[in-house]
Amino acid sequence: MANFTTMSGFLLMGFSGKPEIEMVFAAIFLVLYIVALIGNILIITTTSMDHSLSSPMYFFLKHLSFLDLCYISVTVPRSICNSFMHNGYISLWECILQCFAFTLCGCAEMALLTVMSYDRYVAICLPLRYEVIMDISTCVHGLLAVWASGILGGVMHTAATFSIHFCGANIIHQFFCDVPQLLKLSCSNEYVSELGVSGFLALLTFVCFISIGVTYMHIFSTVLRIPSAEGRARAFSTCLPHLSVVILFVSTSAFDFLKPHSESPTVSDFLLTVFYTVLPPTLNPIIYSLRNKAIKEALKKIFERRKDFFFWITSINLF
């Protein structure tokens, strides 16, 4: 990376300079992180243990939950520790790694949501050919493409961001190494290359979003032609959770990146960032578990097994 910055690190300002307010936000973040951790681990465990959830839909859902775990773990635990330790310092290499991992997870998640929409399209619009089209090879290649796009996006974004010179105060007005905030620290207009990379990734994201939109137009057109109300309800029950996740992830991130960034960030700026960094990984498992009957039945069976197991262990101890 040419013209590499000589800065040794940055200071993450977080939500407020007041320790008591920082502790409140840290507690909220901790609760949300625990909810996201439990929810996504339950989804991963359920789709792995229950053989009735072995279709490509649940294969991709399991990897979406894994991505959500990585996505929220990149930023939130470090922010919680900073708040409790009252120390927002982050070294240069930690910032680079955080920026790379965050971009990788974001790009990979968008790609995975696009692949999942194609899976739903084949399942509903081409049901007789579903097993032939969405075989193991297709699923594996789709997953490899997802991770390849994430790694490529992460490398491009990180290399372009940290190839510029930083000067002046090394203060980042955010709870993680946010690229727009980093660009404000550049000495001149050296960030033109970064803007080009951002524009390219935004274009790819837009293409993914349009692809998902066109896919769902075909899906809804097919579903509305299903004669039975029960069939329509079953089809919608497999599509609406995914569509809700797409809308939540894309709308919150797009709104934050497209809005003008002020020189001195307000509380609303921080909250908007929370909407696309913390809320999607936290709410995705809830959306899928509430709207998906198969997931709810599988979760119920797992908890019943655990209940029977603990009852058996207790009975042995009593004797």
Automatic annotation (TrEMBL):
Which Gene Ontology MF annotations are present? G protein-coupled receptor activity; olfactory receptor activity
One Pfam family matching this protein: 7tm_4
**Which PROSITE patterns does this entry report, sorted A to Z?**
G_PROTEIN_RECEP_F1_1, G_PROTEIN_RECEP_F1_2
Q: Keywords of this protein's UniProt record, alphabetized? A: Cell membrane, G-protein coupled receptor, Membrane, Olfaction, Receptor, Sensory transduction, Transducer, Transmembrane, Transmembrane helix
Domain (G-protein coupled receptors family 1 profile) ranges: 39-288
Residue ranges of the TM segments: 21-45, 57-76, 88-112, 132-152, 196-219, 240-258, 270-290
Entries under InterPro entries matching the protein = GPCR_Rhodpsn, GPCR_Rhodpsn_7TM, Olfact_rcpt, Olfactory_GPCR
Highest rank taxon of the organism: Eukaryota
Q: Where in the cell is it found?
A: Cell membrane
Gene3D superfamilies given in the database record: Rhodopsin 7-helix transmembrane proteins
Q: Name one GO cellular component term.
A: plasma membrane
Role played: Odorant receptor.
Please give the family membership noted in the entry.
Answer: Belongs to the G-protein coupled receptor 1 family.
Q: What is this protein called?
A: Olfactory receptor
What broad taxonomic lineage does this protein's source fall under? Eukaryota, Metazoa, Chordata, Craniata, Vertebrata
Q: Which gene encodes it?
A: LOC101960437
